[in-house]
Amino acid sequence: MNIFGSNNITTRFLSVWCRNWIVYLRTWKINFIPPLLEPILYVAAFGVGFRLLVPSVQFHGQEMSYVQFIAPALVAVSIMNSSFFETTYASFVRMYYQKTFDAMMSAPVSVQEVITGEIVWGATRSLMTAAVTLAVLSCFGLFPWPEAFWILPVAVLGGFAFAAIGMMFTGLIPNIELFNLPVFLFITPMFLFSGTFFSIDTLPEWAQWFALILPLTHLVNLCREICCGSVLSIGAITAGIYLVVFSAIFYPLALRTMRKRLIK
Amino acid sequence: MKNGSIIKVQDLRKVYGDTTAVDGISFKVNRGEIFGILGPNGAGKTTTIRMLYGFSPMTSGSLRVFDLDIETDWRAIRTRTGVCHQDNNLDPDLTVRENMHVFARYFAMPQKMAAERTEHLLKFIGLEQRKESKPPELSGGMMRRLILARALLNNPELIILDEPTTGLDPQSRHLVWERIGELKKTGITVLLTTHYMEEAARLCDRLIIIDYGRIITEGNPAELVKRHVGHEVIESSPVSEELCAFVKQRGLEYEVSGDRLLIYCREEDEDLFHEISHQYCRDNCALRTATLEDVFLRLTGRQLRE
Q1: Which ipTM did the prediction report?
Q2: B76–chain A nearest CA distance, Å
Q3: Contact A106 B53 (CB under 8 A)
Q4: Best exposed site among A11, A238, B29, B98 by fewest CB in 10 Å?
């Protein structure tokens, strides 16, 4: 196992994950407020304010309220945001300002284990946020149980995918201000056009194809299928495969860009 | 391998694009000694150290630590080595104790052992009262000592200290020196880089001075002073022309630095100071012992390095 090669991943990455977990426990009370409040705000805005404009929505031949339509998308967005922001801004702070990675790599931990630990931690953040969002939205009766349980493994998969691409940006971006670029060019358009607030069927055809490239579209689809009780539908399985392939592409890319950035 | 070399470096080179940071250096560090790497800023000290513990890949050459190959056995090497970085890379969100415990995880150390080592080491560096403080609440000297304690967690056979006392007040610096001396007594091999010649002269058994990525001299501090500077130095300021002429005529080794004339005296030149101070510079002339700083400045020049 050559240190500068790429096959340097053992379970030692868990020690990196564990470091983040211990730091998280110090601030969990603050970290729990956004996923607790955000879904309530959305339900208030769209459930109360929007109800007269859009009385009901058709999806898969089912008639549902607008809030029911966007509830799975809200979970998907929370999955995306928590891991993406973790491996971009938060990892950048650890790497650049706190030099945490340098300290880890003076111990018997490889650069690949550091990055894997960070990405798996990002996926863990997604899991925790999704669980809270799901719990809050379930209080409004917006999720069917026990099917909604499937959201949790999906959060890990989706979280991993977005953590990997976020980490790749961290490997490429020269300074922390420039994270604005992937946020405005990648995250914000996805937030709006991935079938979150309206079905992508309503878009012009070229835009529909474009939406299909975006990972959030598939994560939203997957969550919505689960919500409609069709966990093993073709739509759900395709979306799942997309996310696995996406992760399989961007995880090695993240390892590569970060290795290039850290090892000189 | 009781008395053998802990580190063997042969023709080590590191090239970044157009610049050669380390240009073919070779040296050995013996078990149980304190070995110093000295050099001006940008001479290649930190780059060398980073290659030693497998952080940076070398461009060419060979490098063996504990008679193991850094590229393939890096995990075994790092398990037996402690590294004390120049930068503060403590976790600001964790307490002193947690910083130690989290670091122990990177070595896969059992938690009970980590707790015991932490207690012992915090006492060793005088931080047992600050266990629950967070690094931002500590002084610079305390943070540096904590980094030292952290580097000792895994009970290393070799400890690498990159400028361990830069920016510390005299009290903290002396405490770090004392601790390094104690570590040596326990048989740990120490590799250290420093800008402070007093530190190197006091601690190092042997040292190398590097500049522009090359070794320019190697040896024991006292021996280096003798070899390159001599016994004593006469400093005279301002520089008088008569004195210069005298020095040249006598064939003495000298150097002009700004408005200061430095004359390097050998042991046999005992009466020289008497002669010079009486004839040329009664008031503005001083005799002092030659130091490693003289060696350093003579060999690396006096111009600034950025």
Answers
A1: 0.87
A2: 8
A3: yes
A4: A11
> pLDDT of B77-119, one tens digit each?
999 999 999 888 999 999 999 999 999 999 999 999 999 999 9
Nearest CA in chain A to B154: A107
Q: How far is residue B117's CA from residue B100's CA, in Å, rounded to a whole number? A: 9
Question: CA Rg, chain B, in Å?
Answer: 22
**Least confident among A107-116, A201-210, B263-272, B286-295:** B263-272
Residue B10 near chain A (CB below 8 Å) = no
Q: What average pLDDT is seen over chain B?
A: 89
The whole-angstrom distance between B56's CA and the closest CA on chain A is 6
pLDDT at position A148 is: 87
Question: What is the C-alpha to C-alpha distance for residues A35 and A75, in angstroms, rounded to an integer?
Answer: 10
pLDDT band at residue B1 under the 50/70/90 scheme: very low
Whole-prediction pTM value?
Answer: 0.90
Contacts with B188 (C-beta within 8 Å, 6 or more apart), sequence order: B32, B156, B157, B158, B159
- Cβ pair B85:A106 closer than 8 A: yes
Mean pLDDT confidence for B282-293: 82
Tokens, residue B20: 């050669």
A100 at interface of B, judged by CB pairs closer than 8 A: yes
- Crossing angle between the packed helical segments A234-262 and A215-227, to the nearest 10 degrees: 140
Please answer yes or no on whether B75 and A102 come within 8 Å at the CB atom: no
A44-82 pLDDT tens trace = 888 777 777 777 888 777 888 888 888 899 999 999 999
pLDDT for res B300: 82
CB atoms A99 and B85 under 8 Å: yes
Contacts of A44 (CB under 8 A, 6+ apart): none
On the CB side of B107, how many CA atoms lie within 13 Å of its CA? 28
- A34 φ, ψ (degrees, to nearest 5): -55, -50
Chain B, residues 95-114, CB within 8 A of chain A, namely: 98, 102-103, 105-108
Q: How far is A102 from chain B (nearest CA, A)?
A: 7
Give the whole-number percent of chain B exceeding pLDDT 70.
Answer: 97
**Helices and strands (DSSP H and E) totals, chain A:** 12, 2
DSSP B12-63: EEEEETTEEEEEEEEEEEETT-EEEEE-STTSSHHHHHHHHTTSS--SEEEE
Chain A partners within 8 Å of B53 (Cβ) = 106
Measure the CA–CA gap between B68 and B240, rounded to whole angstroms.
Answer: 58
Asked whether the beta carbons of residue A18 and residue B53 sit closer than 8 angstroms, the reply is no
Output A63 or A22, whichever has higher pLDDT.
Answer: A22
Bridge-based pairing state of the strands B253-257 and B260-265: antiparallel
